[in-house]
Amino acid sequence: MANVSVYNMEGKEVGTMELSDAVFGVEINEHLVHMAVLSQLANNRQGTQKAKTRSEVSGGGRKPWRQKGTGHARQGSTRAPQWKGGGVVFAPVPRDYSFKMNKKEKRAALKSALTSRVQENKLVVLDELKLDAIKTKSMVNVLKNVNAEKALVVLNENDENVVMSARNIAGVKTALTNTINVYDILKYNTLVMTKAAAEAIEEVYA
């Protein structure tokens, strides 16, 4: 089991915590991690792009000039792709980019991402994260104390003071234990979580 230091909000070490190897010490599967990131980015795409082909553009029903004898190349319509105002060749149409990953694959990818944060010493565990009021400056100081400027902050329970205080800090995002995902874990330099959040993740994914 991996032992990590537990810090308080002032950045002082107040103890250690044993992390479960079933969640934070698995063999990293880069392929599944890659698939999970691709899946999330693809599922976020709207896929609403649309352009008209030559069959959909209005006009162009009449042949612009006769077939032979003009000296011009033969033309059948002024809405052919080579004409101004013509249709688009192989025009994009609305489509669904999303693809499905199995539950086991998703879990394995998430565990791999969490393990990579532990191995790279980019996981910071706090004994608790409580703010008396909504104040961005207070949240900035907490993150500075634990050397985590660009960070994903994982909470066990929704704390409005923490979420609202972190919302306006560039490069910082808050998440709950049931909303974490592979993309966010890898996107931010540091993964900051409370001790309760780490225990909750172990309980769900172990």
From TrEMBL:
Annotated InterPro entries: Ribosomal_uL4 (IPR002136), Ribosomal_uL4-like (IPR013005), Ribosomal_uL4_dom_sf (IPR023574)
GO cellular component: ribonucleoprotein complex; ribosome
Keyword GTP-binding annotated: no
A molecular function (GO) term: structural constituent of ribosome
Keywords: Ribonucleoprotein, Ribosomal protein, RNA-binding, rRNA-binding
Keyword flag rRNA-binding: yes
Region (Disordered): 44-85
A GO biological process held by the record: translation
Database matches in NCBIfam families: rplD_bact (TIGR03953)
Subunit structure as annotated in this protein's UniProt entry: Part of the 50S ribosomal subunit.
Its job: Forms part of the polypeptide exit tunnel. One of the primary rRNA binding proteins, this protein initially binds near the 5'-end of the 23S rRNA. It is important during the early stages of 50S assembly. It makes multiple contacts with different domains of the 23S rRNA in the assembled 50S subunit and ribosome.
Similarity comment: Belongs to the universal ribosomal protein uL4 family.
Name of the molecule in the record: Large ribosomal subunit protein uL4
Protein species of origin: Marvinbryantia formatexigens DSM 14469
